[in-house]
Each structure stands twice: as structure tokens, then as C-alpha cells.
Amino acid sequence: MSNKDTILTVEHLYKAFDGTSVLEDINLEVQKGEVIVLVGPSGCGKSTFLRCLNALEETDEGRVLLDGEVINPAEGKSLSHVRERIGMVFQSYDLFPHKTILDNIMLAPLKVQKRDKEGVKAEAIELLERVGLFSHKDKYPRQLSGGQKQRVAIVRALIMHPEVLLLDEITAALDPEMVREVLDVVLSLAKEGRTMVMVTHEMAFARAVADRIIFIDGGKVVEEAAPDEFFDAPRTERAARFLKTFSF
Amino acid sequence: MFGSLGFDVLFKGTNMARLLGGLGIALKISLISVAISIAAGIVIGILISLKNPVMDGVFKVYLEIVRIMPQMVLLFIVYFGAAKAMGLNLSPELSSIIVFSFWGIAEMSDLVRGAVTSIPAIQYESSAALGFNRWQTYAYVIIPQTARRIIPMSINLITRMIKTTSLVMMIGIVEVLKVGQQIIEANRKSSPNAAFGIFATVFVLYFLACYPISCLSKYLEKKWEN
């Protein structure tokens, strides 16, 4: 039974693509304010798992609950309403190319949440200042660097006031010198107590930001541990082998 | 000098007004056809982008027919052929609008299909992740981006249609080029050099009609390149 601070619950989640099993019997409880980092080899199912959390992928079996409410499989009610409560930032730049930075950020709160324009604008500007991009507010996405675009994408998710933020390898497509500026933003979000579930290949960052590491291999949770424990003394041979690929 | 190039004929009687009237007919045919092509092309293009194999096959054959068949042959089939074979008495203007639309719908559908399918999947997904429903995703994200890709190219289609209207005189429509020929014929004795002056004027008229449109297309393309 989940305790009262549980915000996201995953129960016996199964997912297959064309008969090939991708996720098998995944269980997870995310507490409010917790930062969970999913690690594992490419193709192990971590991104698919993340996409099940906001129902971008439908589960084959099992369920996902947000604050006690079943959100996947979607039960006839509006998926969009659930999704606005879970923010997501993707690996590839997903800003709307035909809108300015400010409009990218303001579109969903105005159209989906029907919020007041002045209030949304003030918040957008405050968030942009926070990630150091206020002076870029009237530019178009193509005029920004990859790192800047990802910071805008984070702001665009934050302005919806999501209860959980999902980050899917958000620095994987970036040039190395831009990774830091994005991860710094994520670190500051973790410090202020945001609930986040993320996939990353930046192991040093994972160790610094995570409250809990979940190691997935072959569609199953192989190991689940506190970061220091996982990185210093992995319990399973598979996790040890995986971690070795990052050291030289 | 001016007179010997045949420009003087323009100022005889209502010649200039007649030329402009001819241009008006050419513009009318092409603009009506373009309007039909854009409206139908958007619907058909979106339908084809859904990738139904039957619709795909039918559309491919249609597109090939339009590409291979000279417009003049199509005009003859519709105007002369339909009248004989089906007893349809289509006016020359209606016949040419049918043919031009037949051509334009094929091109527009293909443009729309290309534009819709070129919007990356991540645009749909990030919209969904932000809580947009399907309708909002299309209204605020997909259609504006698609339109920006289509509009410059469809403007280009307008100019090509205007140019191609010179063919409709073959089914008896007195458009600008035909008016020009008539004026030259009528003034053969008094101004033997009228051909140069008249055709040069026709050239300028086509240019004045098409150049602003083509500039607009270039401007929009540049403005929206992202």
C-alpha cells in the first residue's frame, strides 16, 4: 500500500512492441520531491518506461497512477488533462519552430489551462530570467543553441506547474560544452524539491542529482539503490559491468 | 521610331482596354482554379497523408496522369471530347476551369501531403505531453507549420497557372494573347510592325501580373524559414 506522500505509482507494468517484450513487470513508487534516475544500456526500455508514465505509450498490462488516479491505461477520460499534470522534456528539440521563445512557453498555459495572459507572461519572464534566457524571449528556436533550446523546453514544462517532471535524455543530443548549462538547471530544480523521473547517460550527474537510482536491463529492474551505493558498490554483476563501460 | 516598333497600335481605339480585358479573363480563370485547387487539395492532401493504400494508389495514378498529359490535350478532351461523347455542353471558360483545377488539385494535394508528413513526430508528442488534445495540436501546432510550408509553394502554382492560361485561346477563349493577335490582324495594313509592340505589351502585362505574386512567395518563404 502506498503511503500518503506517494505521487506516482507503477504497478506490474508490461509493454511489448510487435510481440517483443520491452518492459516486464516494472513496479515503482515515486515520493513527492523525490528524484529518480533511470540508467541502463541503450535499448533497455528506460525511455519507453518514461513514456508510459504520461501515457504517450499505452501499457499492455499493469497500471500507472498519479496521486491515486489511474492514468494509464487511460480509462475513457481525457488524457490531455492528465498530461498537463506531468511535464516532459525530450531528447530531440521539441520547441514549436513557428513560435517565438515566449510564445512557445505561453501557448499551453493559455490554451490548455486557460490561464490569464498577464499572469502567464509574468511567470514566463520570471522563469526565463531564472534560466538566463530572458534576452532571447523574442527569438525563434532556430536562433538558439541546443543547450538554450533545452532550457526553454524545461521552462515550457515548468510553467504548467506539473506535479512530476519527466526528462528523457535531455542532454544526449547536445554538444559537450552545452551539457553543463542544462544539467545545472535540473540540479537547481532538484534542490528546490521537484519530483522528477529522468533518463540520463551522464553518470556523474546521475549520482549528484538522484535520490534513487534504478538500473534497468532487458526490460526489467535489475537493481534499485541509493546513488552512492549503486555507483560505489553495485550489488549485481550486470550493473557492475554497465558502470565499467563509463570508466577509463 | 516608337511608331515603327508598333506600339502606336495600343493607343488606337480601345485596344489597350481590350488587352487588359483579356488579361482579366486569364486572371479570372486562374484564380478561380487556384481557389478550387487549394480547398480540395488541402482535404485530399490530408486524406492521403493518412497512408491508406487504396487512396495512395488512386492518387499516384491521378498525379502521374496530370504530370504526363499536356494541359492542351486535357483542354481538348474536356471541351471537345466531353461535348461529343457525353453530350455535355461546357462553356470554354468552365472547361478551362475544370482542366486547371484538375491539374491544380493534383499539385496542391501533393504539396499538402508532403508538408503534413514532413512535420516531425516529436511535434505531435511534445504537444500531447503539454496537455493539448488532438484538435488543439492540429490548430496551434501542426496546421500553422503546414501552412507556412504550403503557402509559398501554392503561390508559385498561381503564377504557373496564369502563364498557362495562354493555352485557353485554343478552345476559343479570347484572353490577352488572343486579343493581341486580333489587334495585330486588324492593323496589318496600317501598322505592319504591330506584332512587336503588341506582344511586348502582352509580355509586360504577364510580368506585371506574376512578378508581385512571385515576390510575395519569396518574401513569405524567407520570413517563415524555420
Percent of residues in helices of chain B comes to over 70%
Using only CA atoms, what is the Rg of chain A? 18 Å
Strand order of the largest sheet of chain A: 6-7-8-3-9-10
CATH class of chain B: Mainly Alpha
Shape call of chain A: globular
Considering DSSP H and I runs of 4 or more, what fraction of the residues of chain A is helical? 25-40%
User: How far do the termini of chain A sit from each other?
Assistant: 43 Å
- The residue ranges of chain B in which pLDDT falls below 50 over 5 or more consecutive positions are none
CATH homologous superfamily (4th level) name of chain B: MetI-like
User: Alpha-carbon distance between the termini of chain B?
Assistant: 52 Å
CATH topology of chain B: MetI-like fold
The tally of structural domains of chain B comes to 1
The pLDDT mean of chain A sits at 91
Helix count of chain B equals: 8
Tell me the major beta sheet of chain A.
Answer: 6 strands, mixed
Number of strands of chain B: 0
Describe the protein's architecture and organization.
The complex is a heterodimer of chains A (248) and B (226). Chain A has 248 residues and is of the alpha/beta class. Chain A is 35% helix and 26% strand. In chain A, helix 3 packs across helix 4, helix 3 (101-111) runs parallel beside helix 5 (146-158) and helix 5 packs parallel to helix 6. The longest helix of chain A has 16 residues, at 176-191. In chain A, 44% of the residues are buried. Chain B is 77% helix and 0% strand. Chain B has 226 residues and is an all-alpha fold. In chain B, helix 1 (15-49) crosses helix 4. Chain B has helices spanning 15-49, 53-68, 71-86, 92-117, 121-129, 134-164, 176-186, 194-223. The mean pLDDT of chain B is 87.
